[in-house]
């Protein structure tokens, strides 16, 4: 990893994702796809605000725009945080098996490596709540963008959860692992909520 | 739109997606998320190639790497093609209702605007086929990245399809519209194939 991931060009980020380097990987992709999902929600809000037809929702749309901006910024940061936490873990895997500190170092780095994916899941849950509300209050002209955002949010949530579970599974501290898994399981219920938006938007468009 | 979308920084692309401008929108996000999905497949291939343990698959992995590169490049191009086709459509919507050429121009621009999303769907289907094969032949160390790629591919396919249907629905040429919808429906069967990979990978990791 050189410099900040999110300052790379889109084509450059995709190329680095494809390359033989652990970072960026599935975790970084999850956070960035989450950021795109909430960006689509914000686009719908930006086309709704100020419109007479949606005047009754103006205050809500303004609030959603502020919240969406914060969630997007946080998810972009999490791409970097995920990458930063992965490097020490990959180094710990390289510690010789006979080193008596190996297990302890691996345990610590693995715990650190699941902090970012779990925080991604919390932020993506917020994105899904915003998309649900935007699906009700946003301009109907952009309903397909709400659906695209919801599809991306569902994928981001699933991808982030894989990066939680792949770490919890190798922990010796089962209490810590089970708490993280329980939180992840709770957040995974948002996947079907996002999918419900996709299905509703798709059905609405197809019924036109 | 200024310059090439995919040369923008990742944070800049997300900001433009969120802004009050029609392009980039859900179509561009679909193509880019599709490109990230196949990039993750390529990463797994790049960590598999040359490994003794997977020597029996070496030729297949090499082929998948080549195909993955092509699909990624094509999806990145489609972000630009989608943006380029959208601009004339947005202009056509601005033609005064009393202009006798309005309907004809709208029809033509709408047909043009669904070419890119439909081609995205074809490319994302190839990405899903590659992910299915990589899930069998790729290094098990990176199975979570196959799962993340599959989740992104499912989302990209659904998002691209919304951008097909939102255009077919307004066409007067019902023959053209129905052919496009039939092809999109066929390609949408890949969503459950991608979701099957996600479910299988998730179950595998959770059973560790």
What does this structure look like?
2 copies of one chain form a homodimer. Helix content of chain A is 78%, strand content 0%. The model of chain A has no long low-confidence stretch (mean pLDDT 96). Chain A is elongated and about 70 Å long. The first copy, chain A, contains 6 helices and no strands. The longest helix of chain A is centred in the middle third of the chain and has 36 residues, at 58-93. With 208 residues, chain A is mostly helical. The interface between A and B is large, with 61 and 61 residues.
Helices and strands, with pairings:
The structure is a homodimer of 208-residue chains.
Chain A: H1 10-18, H2 26-48, H3 58-93, H4 102-137, H5 143-168, H6 174-206
Helix pairs in contact in A: 2-3, 2-4, 2-5, 3-4, 4-5, 4-6, 5-6
Rg of chain A, please? 19 Å
The largest sheet of chain A is: none
Question: Helix share of residues of chain A?
Answer: over 70%
Largest interface: A-B, 61 and 61 residues
> Oligomeric state of the chains?
homodimer
Taken from the alpha-carbon principal axes, the silhouette of chain A is elongated
The strand count of chain A comes to 0
Order of helices and strands of chain A: HHHHHH
- Overall residue-averaged pLDDT value of chain A: 96
What is the terminal-to-terminal distance of chain A?
A: 47 Å
Strand content of chain A: under 5%
Secondary-structure-derived class of chain A: mainly alpha
Q: Report the uncertain regions of chain A.
A: none
Put simply, the count of helices of chain A is 6
